[in-house]
From TrEMBL, chains A, B:
GO terms for molecular function: DNA-binding transcription factor activity; transcription cis-regulatory region binding. The keyword Transcription regulation applies. Residues 9-63 form the HTH lacI-type domain. Keywords: DNA-binding, Transcription, Transcription regulation. InterPro entries: HTH_LacI, Lambda_DNA-bd_dom_sf, Peripla_BP/Lac1_sug-bd_dom, Peripla_BP_I. It comes from the Bacteria. This is LacI family DNA-binding transcriptional regulator. PANTHER family: LACI-RELATED TRANSCRIPTIONAL REPRESSOR (PTHR30146), TRANSCRIPTIONAL REGULATOR (PTHR30146:SF33). The keyword Transmembrane does not apply. CDD domains: HTH_LacI (cd01392), PBP1_GntR (cd01575).
Length: 341, 341
């Protein structure tokens, strides 16, 4: 189809359609109070029928800021970040601010590029996943002069504010629960490794906790592909063929954990006596499996909400007092696959 | 934390840090070719170390357009729209365009509000889910003077371009497959109904196909809550208690279908002989269940890709010839839960 775009609508179009002067139309559209209710309604009705929308670019030039919040996350295609987005949206939808989303695929060089593009629009704030960034990205974040909230992870030094959980502690707590339950031969399976710093920190936390009980991880497999059920099945089968005496499997996320669980049920393993399992994320979607997988809620929606609240508060008042480090506390859900010690 | 934001960086800061004149710095940052390679590198290195990012708002004021693409979708929290977003991102990440995401929760009044907000930023294009919009939303889309692509669904009249599948036809094809396989007592379960127009159209398409074989839907349940495994279990159990002689269950999405499947397996139903099942969406995540659920791929990632390609082509040349109606063809995947007739 070839076509000429329609001529942009102007105040004059609304003025002609409503029979009200351009100046009054402008007052109504800027929400000024010095216009009668009847006139206001006439103008708004005409504007709506025409499909007129005011232009905010000029205002942005004056303020040097647009009402966009840059949200920079690794991926949309697993269940983790859409829930963070939902939390962010819940807060921003009651404000003038809108999220702009950039995807990094867990790659630092891509994060740098996306951040550069977004900052060139002078957004009102940045919400960015993780604490590990390139030097150039950190320089841009520091120089941006807007609120920056790093989310998901609190194990490190933020540029500005941070909202998340300690993944080292999450791994440590799982490690302690595994020890307490008496498991001795532990296997770890991780996807998106080593790019997923948060999964790596959980692995490290668990390893340290186990070491205190004199136990070393007996086998591990890092895989940098997807994270579906089928991948969890495959990895579990391969690991148990290689190291058949494992009695506990810790997965970097619930989806591969659920795949492993379905595989072990089919093969007739006695869970959690013969072998225990735990995932991570508390994916609500997975409630309804034949057995409930042990996991830990990553507080995703709350992280999004709290981060957006910081941006909103700082946008309204740059000097407002805020908590610059918000560490949320996930709790272990034992489900049916991790013995209570 | 209370703090004064840093003074915004200017061309002069880059000039001082690099020892190159402001005019030359400006040339380098606008990618002009009349600067030596050595000078260019010096300037870019200094800009990177400082975290300097050029300001694009002024350019937008001149062109009356910003390089944002408004993407308006019902939800982030199921698996459908994140995959559409991934498709859109794959195309836009190679361009200057960035997606801005608005969420409607399947509510027309919220869609209207989100659209209004986004259009006030004069984006370069709009990608919006579905063909059903309020009159005011349609007026805004028509008047915007930018490429508009309605996605997911081709059963109706688009404002401008449309990329999707025919959900009526998808439902009809499943209905025909059910008839051909010899099932006679059919139940339908839908979530997000009646707000999800696409699920409604699939239901209508199936009903029509069954009617041609002289069969009426024996039971149906519409539920407007979430769509997790547990919901699929509950709905399936309730329906089979109410109508125990059903021999086929059609679900509005794969997640509730998978919940139903797990329930039926546990209860010892003989699938697909005693009872058959089908879902919708082709959610890749679900590969790895004990049996493969019959489904239909909704072409989500391709829909996102093709829609973004239209926006990109039209942004480069508003008069370019494009296909204004792209209907993709999903195919039935029979899996282990739908007999081949």
């Amino acid at each position: 189809m070839s076509r000429t775009p329609p001529r942009p609508l102007t105040l004059r179009d609304v003025s002609e359609a409503s029979g009200v002067s351009e100046m009054t139309v402008s007052r109504v559209l800027r929400n000024r109070s010095d216009v009668s209710q009847a006139t206001r309604e006439k103008v708004l009705r005409a504007a709506k029928q025409l499909g007129y929308v005011p232009n905010k670019i000029a205002g942005a030039l004056a303020s040097q800021r647009v009402n966009l919040v840059a949200v920079i996350i690794p991926s949309m295609s697993n269940m983790v970040f859409p829930e963070v987005m939902t939390g962010i949206n819940k807060v921003l939808e009651n404000t003038e601010l809108q999220p702009v989303v950039g995807i990094t695929d867990y790659l630092p060089e891509k994060e740098e590029k996306v951040l550069y593009e977004m900052l060139s629009w002078r957004p009102s704030g940045v919400i960015i996943a993780g604490l590990e960034h390139s030097e150039a990205s950190r320089a841009m974040l520091r120089a941006a002069g807007i609120p920056v909230v790093e989310i998901m992870d609190t194990d490190g030094d933020p540029v500005d504010a941070v909202v998340g959980i300690s993944h080292r502690r999450a791994g440590k707590e799982i490690g302690e629960a595994i020890l307490k339950a008496g498991y001795k031969r532990i296997g770890f399976m991780g996807t998106k490794m080593p790019l997923d710093h948060r999964a790596r920190k959980r692995f490290e936390g668990m390893t340290q906790a186990l070491a205190k009980g004199g136990i070393e991880v007996a086998d591990h497999e890092f895989y940098s592909g997807g994270s579906a059920l089928a991948k969890g099945r495959e990895m579990t089968q391969a690991m148990l063929e290689r190291t058949p005496d494992l009695d506990f499997l810790y997965y970097s996320n619930d989806m591969i954990g659920a795949g492993g669980l379905l595989y072990l049920i089919e093969k007739g393993y006695d869970i959690p006596t013969q072998i225990g399992l735990a995932g991570f994320n508390g994916v609500e979607l997975l409630q309804g499996l034949p057995m409930k997988l042990a996991t830990m809620d990553a507080c995703r929606s709350e992280i999004g909400r709290r981060a957006a609240e910081i941006i909103v508060a700082r946008t309204e008042d740059p000097n407002v007092e805020i908590e610059e480090r918000i560490e949320l506390t996930p709790t272990i859900s034992y489900g049916d696959t991790l013995r209570r010690g």
